[in-house]
């Protein structure tokens, strides 16, 4: 009864600790809702937002996290940024012929139609007919004409008859390279003109004279290099102009002069580097301006002069570096500003001061280093703000939705946000340090007949010991920054200490896996090909190990000196200084990281798995003693080999899979990064000493001998036995085997093969044994059990 009562007491105690210590201290895996606070009034602290129908304040990071903290669920309302939806709806508009296959054709109401065209009501569809000229005759009352997919080349005024009722003209991918002056002059009621995907290189003056009714002009995906100053004269009622993915290198201050009613201008994916002052000053009705994916180095208030009604400004993927005070002028109607994927380094305190209606701001994928803490404080209407790094959300605590609200590792208060991680990092670091230090010391003091194998193991332990130093660096800084991490985040991630920690982790992991590969190859060749190997020496072993250390050190150090390719955040892109780049898979140096962690490590892991499986099969097929002894031995071998392969699997396979998925575009759960850093990556460093040394019978026997000698008052007990360390480095060759070389003490024998099957009573007394086969001795000597 007593053991049961004791067990129940321990369970209750554990439950109490989990409920009162872990949950009260923060979050276990960032899932605690302790930041949901009841308030006596609707006045919440900065960074908290009141529920709609209750006096509860919810912390910013718990807004829109798919978990209802408010009784009415109001913390999960308005989580979709409609400004993004509008952008993509405009960017990917439906083609004019999108639903034509589903359309039921109506009876033709046109008097005369060309034989090469299909008629429906008052529409003519002549697409993809191989036409080289405009088909004739064209009925004057046609309202829609589609000539896409033909080969028309040059078209001019004389090519068309008087189509005064035509409203939609589609000339997409029609091979048109030249447009004559006033080419569409006969289309007095034309409202939609599609000319995407042709080979136009210039839009000449007067091209659209006489088309005052035109509302939407599509000229995207043409190699247009020049827009003449009067190219758009005659389009005074134009509402939408699409010049996407062209080659426009410059515009003048009067290029868009005639477009006084233009509401949407798309100039993304061109070759613009600079824009003149007042480039858009005559577009007084403009609401949407897209200048994304150009090479613009500066866009300021002078450039955007006169855009009083502008609501949406897209500047994605340009070369902006600095946002100065009042950088965007007086855009008093602006609701959405997208600055993603630039090279913005500095944001001054008054950069957005005049954007009082701004609702959505995107600053993701920039090299932000210097942001004044008050630069967003004047944006009282801001509801959505986006960064690449969560710590910038501390500068926008008044914004309801800030993404990302965490990197899965750190929070505003702690480097390691989860209490479980904070405790585990010390435990794993301690186990790795004690285990690996014990291996190095014990193998240096205790005699081992297989010097080369012991040399390999000591180097493996040294590599794994570096991982524990890395963990201690992270754990120590977590303690130092406790409660105020966000104040130190930028300086910490760009410090030499973080870089050094990242180098330690990379050096440790790569050296460890390379040395494990060498150990596996040594065992594999000794067991699978025992009689075909020549003698190896310590010089050869030293060369292999030195090469591994040099390779690992090169992998770790190269990112520090090649800042042009790797940038200055290869190691410092997260609080634990790991270069796995899971949350931002295409950041600088991602190809190098991919080759190392997915390429090199996959090859090494694959070889280790193959080698141990092959070794087990080879041993299982050999004839070593009686059947019962053989079965017991197989179980022992399988258990040890399974542990070795399983730890490698646990460490590297998840990392390889996660990084591959991230590169493939799969969104990875942000909190996974911390568990990779504290558990997956160091798991081998903590378990290798156990698998390769501390659980082997040789180590336990020699440890027992030391303890026995100490208890016996210093009287040493020695086994008078001959010993020959046979492994890959000392196996016989040319098919010869010496009887003397196959003798060993019974204490060593016990660690691999059952006494009952291989050792007679006489052999126990004489402390000598004759092995049943040279193969059995090689298996024993190479630490396979």
Automatic annotation (TrEMBL):
<keyword id="KW-0732">Signal</keyword>
<keyword id="KW-1003">Cell membrane</keyword>
<dbReference type="GO" id="GO:0005886">
    <property type="term" value="C:plasma membrane"/>
</dbReference>
<feature type="transmembrane region" description="Helical">
    <location>
        <begin position="500"/>
        <end position="519"/>
    </location>
</feature>
<keyword id="KW-0472">Membrane</keyword>
<dbReference type="InterPro" id="IPR023415">
    <property type="entry name" value="LDLR_class-A_CS"/>
</dbReference>
<dbReference type="InterPro" id="IPR000276">
    <property type="entry name" value="GPCR_Rhodpsn"/>
</dbReference>
<dbReference type="GO" id="GO:0009755">
    <property type="term" value="P:hormone-mediated signaling pathway"/>
</dbReference>
<dbReference type="InterPro" id="IPR036055">
    <property type="entry name" value="LDL_receptor-like_sf"/>
</dbReference>
<feature type="domain" description="G-protein coupled receptors family 1 profile">
    <location>
        <begin position="435"/>
        <end position="692"/>
    </location>
</feature>
<dbReference type="GO" id="GO:0008528">
    <property type="term" value="F:G protein-coupled peptide receptor activity"/>
</dbReference>
<dbReference type="InterPro" id="IPR003591">
    <property type="entry name" value="Leu-rich_rpt_typical-subtyp"/>
</dbReference>
<dbReference type="InterPro" id="IPR001611">
    <property type="entry name" value="Leu-rich_rpt"/>
</dbReference>
<feature type="transmembrane region" description="Helical">
    <location>
        <begin position="539"/>
        <end position="561"/>
    </location>
</feature>
<dbReference type="InterPro" id="IPR032675">
    <property type="entry name" value="LRR_dom_sf"/>
</dbReference>
<keyword id="KW-0812">Transmembrane</keyword>
<feature type="transmembrane region" description="Helical">
    <location>
        <begin position="462"/>
        <end position="480"/>
    </location>
</feature>
<feature type="signal peptide">
    <location>
        <begin position="1"/>
        <end position="26"/>
    </location>
</feature>
<keyword id="KW-0675">Receptor</keyword>
<dbReference type="Pfam" id="PF00001">
    <property type="entry name" value="7tm_1"/>
</dbReference>
<dbReference type="InterPro" id="IPR002172">
    <property type="entry name" value="LDrepeatLR_classA_rpt"/>
</dbReference>
<dbReference type="Pfam" id="PF00057">
    <property type="entry name" value="Ldl_recept_a"/>
</dbReference>
<dbReference type="InterPro" id="IPR017452">
    <property type="entry name" value="GPCR_Rhodpsn_7TM"/>
</dbReference>
<keyword id="KW-0677">Repeat</keyword>
<keyword id="KW-0807">Transducer</keyword>
<keyword id="KW-0325">Glycoprotein</keyword>
<feature type="transmembrane region" description="Helical">
    <location>
        <begin position="672"/>
        <end position="695"/>
    </location>
</feature>
<feature type="transmembrane region" description="Helical">
    <location>
        <begin position="419"/>
        <end position="441"/>
    </location>
</feature>
<dbReference type="Pfam" id="PF13855">
    <property type="entry name" value="LRR_8"/>
</dbReference>
<keyword id="KW-1015">Disulfide bond</keyword>
<keyword id="KW-1133">Transmembrane helix</keyword>
<protein>
    <recommendedName>
        <fullName>G-protein coupled receptors family 1 profile domain-containing protein</fullName>
    </recommendedName>
</protein>
<comment type="similarity">
    <text>Belongs to the G-protein coupled receptor 1 family.</text>
</comment>
<feature type="transmembrane region" description="Helical">
    <location>
        <begin position="641"/>
        <end position="666"/>
    </location>
</feature>
<dbReference type="InterPro" id="IPR008112">
    <property type="entry name" value="Relaxin_rcpt"/>
</dbReference>
<keyword id="KW-0297">G-protein coupled receptor</keyword>
<keyword id="KW-0433">Leucine-rich repeat</keyword>
<feature type="disulfide bond">
    <location>
        <begin position="64"/>
        <end position="79"/>
    </location>
</feature>
<feature type="transmembrane region" description="Helical">
    <location>
        <begin position="594"/>
        <end position="620"/>
    </location>
</feature>
<dbReference type="GO" id="GO:0007189">
    <property type="term" value="P:adenylate cyclase-activating G protein-coupled receptor signaling pathway"/>
</dbReference>
């Amino acid at each position: 009864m007593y053991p049961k009562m004791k067990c129940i007491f321990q369970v209750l105690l554990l439950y109490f600790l989990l409920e009162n210590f872990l949950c009260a201290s923060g979050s276990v895996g960032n899932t605690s809702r302790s930041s949901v606070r009841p308030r006596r009034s609707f006045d919440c602290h900065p960074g908290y937002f009141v529920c709609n129908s209750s006096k509860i304040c919810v912390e910013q990071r718990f807004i829109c996290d798919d978990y209802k903290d408010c009784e009415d669920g109001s913390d999960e309302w308005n989580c979709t940024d409609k400004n993004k939806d509008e952008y993509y709806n405009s960017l990917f508009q439906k083609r004019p012929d999108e639903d034509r296959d589903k359309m039921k054709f109506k009876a033709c109401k046109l008097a005369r139609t060309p034989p090469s065209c299909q008629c429906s009501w008052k529409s003519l569809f002549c697409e993809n007919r191989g036409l080289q000229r405009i088909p004739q005759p064209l009925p004057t009352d046609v309202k829609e004409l589609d000539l896409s997919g033909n080969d028309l080349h040059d078209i001019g005024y004389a090519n068309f008859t008087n189509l005064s009722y035509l409203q939609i003209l589609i000339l997409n991918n029609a091979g048109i390279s030249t447009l004559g002056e006033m080419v569409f002059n006969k289309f007095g009621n034309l409202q939609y003109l599609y000319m995407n995907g042709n080979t136009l290189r210039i839009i000449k003056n007067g091209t659209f004279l006489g088309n005052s009714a035109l509302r939407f002009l599509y000229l995207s995906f043409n190699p247009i290099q020049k827009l003449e100053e009067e190219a758009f004269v005659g389009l005074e009622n134009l509402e939408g102009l699409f010049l996407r993915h062209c080659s426009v290198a410059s515009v003048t201050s009067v290029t868009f002069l005639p477009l006084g009613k233009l509401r949407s201008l798309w100039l993304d994916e061109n070759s613009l580097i600079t824009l003149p002052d007042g480039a858009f000053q005559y577009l007084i009705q403009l609401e949407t301006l897209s200048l994304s994916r150009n090479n613009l180095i500066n866009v300021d208030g002078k450039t955007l002069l006169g855009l009083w009604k502008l609501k949406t400004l897209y500047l994605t993927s340009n070369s902006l570096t600095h946002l100065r005070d009042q950088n965007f002028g007086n855009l008093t109607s602006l609701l959405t500003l997208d600055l993603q994927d630039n090279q913005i380094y500095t944001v001054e305190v008054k950069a957005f001061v005049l954007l009082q209606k701004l609702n959505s701001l995107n600053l993701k994928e920039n090299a932000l280093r210097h942001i004044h803490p008050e630069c967003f404080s004047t944006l009282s209407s801001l509801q959505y703000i986006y960064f690449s790094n969560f710590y910038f959300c501390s500068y926008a605590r008044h914004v309801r939705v800030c993404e990302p609200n965490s990197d899965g590792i750190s929070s505003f208060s702690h480097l390691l946000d989860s209490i479980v991680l904070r405790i585990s990092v010390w435990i794993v670091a301690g186990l790795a340090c004690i285990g690996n230090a014990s291996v190095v010391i014990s193998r240096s003091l205790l005699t081992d007949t297989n010097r080369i194998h012991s040399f390999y193991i000591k180097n493996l332990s040294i590599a794994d010991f570096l991982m524990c130093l890395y963990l201690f660096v992270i754990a120590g800084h977590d303690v130092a920054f406790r409660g105020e991490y966000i104040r130190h985040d930028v300086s910490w991630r760009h410090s030499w200490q973080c870089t050094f920690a990242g180098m330690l982790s990379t050096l440790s992991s790569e050296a460890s896996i390379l040395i494990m590969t060498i150990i596996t190859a040594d065992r594999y060749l000794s067991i699978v090909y025992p009689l075909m190997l020549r003698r190896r020496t310590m010089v050869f072993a030293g060369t292999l190990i030195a090469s591994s250390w040099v390779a690992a050190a090169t992998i770790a150090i190269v990112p520090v000196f090649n800042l042009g390719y790797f940038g200055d955040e290869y190691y410092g892109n997260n609080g634990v200084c790991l270069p796995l780049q899971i949350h931002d898979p295409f950041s600088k140096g991602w190809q190098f990281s991919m080759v190392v962690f997915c390429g090199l490590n996959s090859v090494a892991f694959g070889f280790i798995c193959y080698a141990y499986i092959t070794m087990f099969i080879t041993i299982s097929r050999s004839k070593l003693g009686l059947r019962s002894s053989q079965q017991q031995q197989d179980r022992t071998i399988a258990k040890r080999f399974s542990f070795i392969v399983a730890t490698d699997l646990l460490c590297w396979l998840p990392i390889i899979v996660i990084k591959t998925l991230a590169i493939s575009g799969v969104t990875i759960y942000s909190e996974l990064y911390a568990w990779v850093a504290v558990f997956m990556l160091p798991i081998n460093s903590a378990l290798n000493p156990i698998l390769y040394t501390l659980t082997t019978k040789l180590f336990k026997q020699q440890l027992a001998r030391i303890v026995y000698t100490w208890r016996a008052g210093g009287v040493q007990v020695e086994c008078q036995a001959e010993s020959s360390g046979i492994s890959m480095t000392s196996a016989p060759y040319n098919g010869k085997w010496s009887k003397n070389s196959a003798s060993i003490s019974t204490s060593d024998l016990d660690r691999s093969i059952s006494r009952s099957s291989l050792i007679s009573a006489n052999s126990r007394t004489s402390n000598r044994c004759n092995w049943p086969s040279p193969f059995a001795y090689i298996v024993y000597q190479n630490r396979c059990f």
